[in-house]
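hey can u check if this looks right to u? its 482 residues, i copy pasted from the old doc so theres a chance i mangled smth
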Amino acid sequence: MRHERFGAMLALAAMLAGCGGDGGSNASTSSGGSAGGGTAATPAPTASGCSLRERQDWAAAQLREWYLFPETLPTSLSPAGYATVDDYIDALTKTARDQSKDRYFTHLASIKEENAYYDSGESAGFGFRLSIASGNSALTVTESFEGAPALAAGVDRGAQIVGIGTSSSDVRSIAAITAADPTYGIGNALGPDTAGTTRVFRLQTANGGTRDVSIAKAVYTLTPISSRYGVQIINDGDQKVGYLNLRTFINTADAQLRSAFDGFREQGITRVIIDLRYNGGGLINTAELAGDLLGGNRQTSDVFHYTTFRPEKSSNNETRYFAPQSQSIAPTRIAFIGTRGTASASELLINAMSPYLGTSMALVGTNTYGKPVGQIALDRAQCDDRLRVVAIATQNSARQGGYYTGLASTLGTTCQASDDLSRPMGDPAESSTRAALDFLAGRSCTSITARSGDATSFSAAGRELVRAARPSAAQREVPGLF
């Protein structure tokens, strides 16, 4: 969850301070696109160089200035002995992580890489999302992205990968890879996310045999809404239901969202499925637009969400109101499809709509991840360092937040469903889509059992989305992406 209105301006202050070496720049915040809301404090003075120690000291100073949980920071922790800036940040935020408040959300990123992803969806990789079930014998492709190498090679949702190698002669089984490294073995076997990195995938065939497919990583643009199944009108009995699958909250989603909802509006859609089952979050601005498009019957005095900083930074707090658009619809019932891979901005959207729809809205699938906090951006351009600091908490209009164990226990209605990888998302016969249609039609369902789960995992109906040891910007927002 990225707080860009505040973060972009605060990033400028940090960048100027880093270049000048002694601070001295203030940045004003904004609320709802208009100036106001106080000023951001000048970042702490730091050296202007990019040595490891200088970067670590700068990161620590920013955490002490802005971190949402300052009481959890160690009073004194030398960076000596930590080989990277991220290792030091992880040590500084360990107490908050142990309390499930900051599960590696605070991190260092590349300014260039982040801008490429959030502005256009640019990433480098095979262009598929992977999950693994208990037993670790095979990977399953949960989704492949248009314009990326995997789909071009015919590898799509439901494909079973039983081995990975650099050539057909050195393919290792998934069981062997995970036995050697249960946590990051798969990610490491897939190689660096640089164009040209090639791997051979051994795929299970329908008749029980295998076939090898060689795929090279490439730079591609991830489309937030699939051109194949992302927007549909589903005829369910005598009802027309709008279906929208949103993969990630980035800038290029805005035009696609407007187009999708304009189509729903023209069709008179009042029952909607919003499929966020693997959506790990992204820009708050895009989540707010999605809420506006679902808020055709909301007033501009209706609160969408509150954003709060720690007490001594409360002058930066914001209240965001609904702003209905010309493409907005007025839904009478909404089904949000979610899994443990549904996090951050996705959860913000679901939580924000809850007070206005009550039992006419349901979470369908499984419990969500549990990330009711967001990051601001602090830049040191000369080092290509962007520090993402957990500095804000969000609440809906009823002041409900703090859902660190997921949304299932906070919502009035939930419907348990599996993620059916044998069918495309949005297929009326796919389990989660079917359960969503049943809820919209008023049919009964079994409630989701809330659980906290593994504090660092993104899982979906018995499968865990594969993680990278140090995820890229795209992998943070699109869990399971490689």
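Confidence is low (pLDDT under 50) at residues 5-45, 452-456.
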